[in-house]
Amino acid sequence: MLSNTDPKMAKVDLCKTVQELVENGDEVPKQYIWSGSNHSSSYGSADLTVHLTADIPVIDVGRLISSSSAMDEELINLRSALTRWGCFQAINHGIENSFLNEVRKVFREFFQLPISEKQKYARQGDDYEGYGNDLLLFENQSLDWNDRLYLQVAPQHQHKFKYWPQNPPSLREVLHDYTAKLKHMNEQLLESIAKSLSLPEDSFLSKFGDQQTMYARFNYYPPCSKPEQILGLKPHADGSAITILLQDEQVQGLQLLKDDQWFWVPIMPHALFVNVGDQLEIMSNGICRSPIHRAVVDSERERSTLAMFCSPDPAKEIEALEELVDDGRPRMYNKVINYPETYFHYYQQGKRPLDAVRI
User: Fold this and answer.
1) Phi then psi for 67, rounded to 5 degrees?
2) Could you tell me if 329 and 286 are in contact, meaning their C-beta atoms sit under 8 angstroms apart?
3) What is the number of alpha carbons within 13 Å of residue 117 lying toward its C-beta?
4) What's the rounded Cα separation, in Å, for the pair 234 and 253?
């Protein structure tokens, strides 16, 4: 997934998880202090003080897939959300509130297990999957104040079960069921996005191939004594086509960059936050925006989220749909294969991966 040829790469495992640093009362390592000095100017101000809350569009998924006149109205709302914000809060999505609460419950239980138990599923070597920290790839890489469990959940034959926790006992089954529900939702959304752009409904979905991928990232953000200096996740846009986020229902932490200004993303406990990723921006020739966002930390409260990244088969060539390229909107991005390889290489350097394929 990542080129290993950069001479500045330092494949060093971090000695402790963030949770261990907090529980041991350790001094915050300097690598976690966010200066913004090595991040792209595309990522806006490095100031972590934000006072404004975004008026994120709310999209009723049930209306999108209905056969009534309400569908046409909601498709207009969807197009507006994708072109202006690149994201929306999805309601009436067909997933029961009780099940979303169960998903939250099992991954919180995992992160509260003893370190020795969680380490059974620790990321190994250069692998991105597993529990712990992200890879340390570059000498000047700024570190994120979170621990994560990162798993490929589709296609099924690519599961690495050595990283799938057996404790709590229900986690595997719950994750399997959640993946199936979000796969269905992702397909519904891709069809609706195509229709909102006056395209045949399979225009995007057909480009995903038979081996479309889904990765689940369980994020745990422990409390931090220096929230004004440290980020839970550095500014970035996602390398997926669509990302579906289950937010913490109580603790805010997600911020979005729009018009060079950072905004809080409000919590809607039983909504799913959906955002465009770089690959859909490429396929839509820049019509759908892949928004830049970041996660901040709280001085007193922990925060947990689950992001599901939905992407085409990495072996498939991704490019703008021909119907969306004309003299008025020339092709904006080069064709790309295995975009995640480009993505991770640039992300950890604080650079915008999409710039690497921009024409």
Assistant:
1) -105, 15
2) yes
3) 11
4) 12
